[in-house]
Amino acid sequence: MWPIAILTIVHRVLVKAVNGYITDDFAPVYQASLAFLNHRPVYTADFDYVDPHYLYPPSGTLLIAPLAIIDPERSRWLFILVNAIAIILAWYLLLRLFRYTVRSVAAPILLFGMFVSETVTNTLVFTNINGCILLGEMLFLRWLLQRKDLAAGAILGLTFAVKWILLPLLVVVIARRQWKVLVTAVAVPLVMTLIAWPLLVDPMDFVHRTLPYLLESRDYFNSAIVGNGEYYGLPTPLTWFMRVAFGVMVAISLWLLYRYYRDDELFFVCTASGVLLTAQFLLGSLGQMYYSMYMFPFLMTVVLRNSVIRNWPAWCAIYGFMSYDSWLSDRFHSAGRTAEYMKTTLGWSLLLIVVFCVLGDRYLAARREGRLAGGIDPVRVERSPAAPARPAGR
């Protein structure tokens, strides 16, 4: 597997990413950085067009400004390399989180699985910052589990300074009562915003123009329920019904995880984080397929004996939002287009259904057998050595 994994990385970085694509997330970021360094307006995007827009907050603008110090082409290549290195470091941290080494068979399989996926491939091809955010997520999870609260909050806050996409992870922090994490998670982006604000020519344009756009849903490049609902012209009440129904399933799943698994730290943190992030992508105003990168820790829980994704429906779902396959068909135009546009939405939806059903089935079985006091794991399941045993009666 090592040659296959390494050659896949080389292909994705030196061929796919360098070639680029019509979708270019890097160009607006570079132009904004250049404008910032030259003291020109930054938040000038025309939201009437579907081209990628510059959407980072002032704190993110401050962080990415050095990109424009060199010319656009070399800057883009450097950004691709930085993201690729960040993803490889995240891969290593993910291995260690689950107590695997680089010498294990899991190492090349996981590395290949990550780089062959749509989420990593398009992050590199579109030249997005997702790889760096993934590294921040992995450092956050590592330090959270090690109880290095201030460091965990600081790295999470650094991701908030660029994107708020990992904001749901604060729910896990609150559930674990690691309050110090909140201090640095809030302080870091706040301080960076205070530094960036007077350096921008048009900081209020972010508030008045960009922020409202971020809070709106759109009917293009949007795999959230509301996005596909608008694209296919579904009645608004039906769209809301689906969002509420999935919201209820997510709430019940999270309650069961908290009630019966919060002391099984690795399983709880990674599973709850995955459920929260999937819910955000599916139920929020914007969900794009390459956001699924942040679910790698959840998918890695398959190696734990009490994993909720050790079943074939879960991996049908994962195929939907991870596979790089295109379902557009020259023969079956309408069906192929629908499959292509809906695969991510259906994948996220099915995964939440699977988690809800697995946890619900475990709970009902344990209640029926009178063993709720000892937890809801099936009797045949033994605790993974990677996670500490939960005391009885909790």
Automatic annotation (TrEMBL):
Keywords, comma-separated and alphabetical: Cell membrane, Membrane, Transferase, Transmembrane, Transmembrane helix
Residues spanning the membrane: 77-94, 151-174, 181-200, 240-258, 265-283, 348-365
Topology in the lipid bilayer: Multi-pass membrane protein
Keyword Repeat belongs to the record: no
InterPro entries: GT87
Pfam families attached to this UniProt entry: GT87
Intracellular or extracellular location(s): Cell membrane
Chief location: membrane
Domain of life: Bacteria
Family indicated by similarity: Belongs to the glycosyltransferase 87 family.
Name used for this protein in its record: DUF2029 domain-containing protein
Organism (species): Skermania pinensis
Lineage: Bacteria, Bacillati, Actinomycetota, Actinomycetes, Mycobacteriales
